[in-house]
User: What shape does this take?
Amino acid sequence: MYVIVDIETTGGNFDKGKITEIAIYKHDGERIVDEYVTLINPECYIPPFITGLTGITNEMVESAPMFYQVAKDIVSICEGSVFVAHNAGFDYGFIKEEFKSLGYDFNMPTICTVKLSRKLLPGHASYSLGKICPELGIGNDARHRAAGDALATVKLFEILLNKNNGLLNPDDPYNKFSADGLHADLSMDYIRQLTTETGVYYLHDEKGEILYIGKSKNIRNRIITHLGNPKSKKGLEMKLKTADISHEVTGSELVALLKESEEIKSHKPRFNRAQRRKRNQMGLYHYTDRKGYIRFLLKANEGVESPDATFETMQEARERLFSWIDEFELCQQLCGLYEGKQGCFQYQIKMCRGACAGEESPDTYNQRASQLLEKLSYGYKNLVILDKGRRPDEMAVVVIENGSYLGYGFIDQDESIESPAQFKDHIQRADDNRDTKVIITSCLRTKKYKKLIPY
Assistant: This one.
């Protein structure tokens, strides 16, 4: 979905100016499906030269609603869409500033039809709305009024969309979608009709074999990224060989990540890189030594053992481990950060309890080491994570038990659950491994879920 927007203001700077009129036309890629147009009381004086330009007078806006009174309507019609405007930075900047004054963070992907016109319609002397529209046969009987300019932008956007084979990627809208190299069995109409939901997608060759597995919050947009205009040798080859696309909607981004990881390990597609991403190259591991002390060790992840925590670099790993040593009063030597036989440096300055010198018993020391392990193990021994489902009346479920990931599933919102342990009856069992740990701990850290239920 797209929302084509135009505003009129009291001036050209959103730090000082205010909105006097807004027009929003919701577009599904083929036609307008909803609209919202209103004057807005800017709560300040409209200069005469602005009135001369727009025709909007102080008297006209006197009884109009103030921005805070229409803010909810604007959010409602814009939700889940891409913000489109001619010189989008201007309109988006004003609207974002108005919401900022209300304490609301207004964020949307944007497309500027000025930039897109220069990319897809080269050769025009000017790309201002007043100049390019007549050259393209687009009429506008209400120039410098929000509805008139927004409707003209709608017509321009439809021309641009058609010029780009009806496909635009909000993540990279100015990269033209090229049909060159697209497999004969894959039609543009099919790509246009792909879901925009969150989930996992599969690219297949003409024999049905899986070439690539990925996840996305918007499956169609991600497919457009893959097949639109790839530059790398791998991307070009994948576009040439992709004859079919399948997908599974998950609703939850967390479940999509977990399913993607599971499916890649199961199918090992040709174009998927191994799930050893740079950000997870270093790991923190633990073991119990011959004297009974829990020890920690930083080393490169090799994909064999499951680490207690992962890091992008050794520097980051050392900094985090030093902070945990301070937090839980652990020994630098037993955590692998101090080499020596006479006790760690902290012990020498009387800031370590002496586990490294045998002065603190393993039982006492291990109580604090175990607290760190519990913190690193999802923060809870038993946990249910609830998130967005595939339908409005459904929830996604991820279950952690005894510090291990059990699996994911879905449950109707009206399902009667008397005990958190019953959520296990609704999940698909899965492997607990290094990648799932990274995915879940990242989700918990960034709070990208609906609800947590410890038990």
Remarks:
- The two ends are 40 Å apart (CA to CA).
- The first strand starts at residue 2 and ends at 9.
